[in-house]
Amino acid sequence: MIRVTILYPNEQGAWFDLGYYLDSHIPLALDRLGSAVKGVWVDHGIGAGSQGPRPPFFAMCHFLADSSEAYEKALDPHREELAQDIGNYTNVKPLIQFSEVRLSR
Question: What is the pLDDT of residues 35-69, one digit of tens each?
């Protein structure tokens, strides 16, 4: 299994509309990615612990998939549509990481 993590940095002057992200963008992504996505988690940054009150990321989205190839194959026909929607909920460039799930409880 792989996890695709999309991080939205909490940069100076940046904004993020969590309501739009949860109510519109994530349902759109799930519809387009279909059965390639086995699970999704969205985290909303609320702080940075001892580093201060400002979280380093507005939000993080985690998609679970069987493989990076399966995820990319499902994403490819919809990549442009999903990328164009980003401006509706943030003005930051998301960071993306593919990870191999090594432990899950």
Answer: 999 999 999 999 888 887 789 999 999 999 999 99
Mean pLDDT of 14-30: 99
Type of residue at 92 = V
**Domains, the chain:** 1-39+67-105 (3.30.70.100)
Helix (H) or strand (E) holding 44: strand 37-44
Q: Please name the residue that has the structure tokens 């519109």.
A: 24
User: In 3D, which of 81, 79, 80 has the Cα closest to residue 24?
Assistant: 81
State pTM to two decimals: 0.93
Q: Which amino acid is at 44?
A: H
Long-range contacts of 77-86 (CB under 8 A, 24+ apart): 77/32, 78/32, 78/33, 81/28, 81/32, 82/25, 82/28, 82/29, 82/32, 85/24, 85/25, 85/28, 86/25
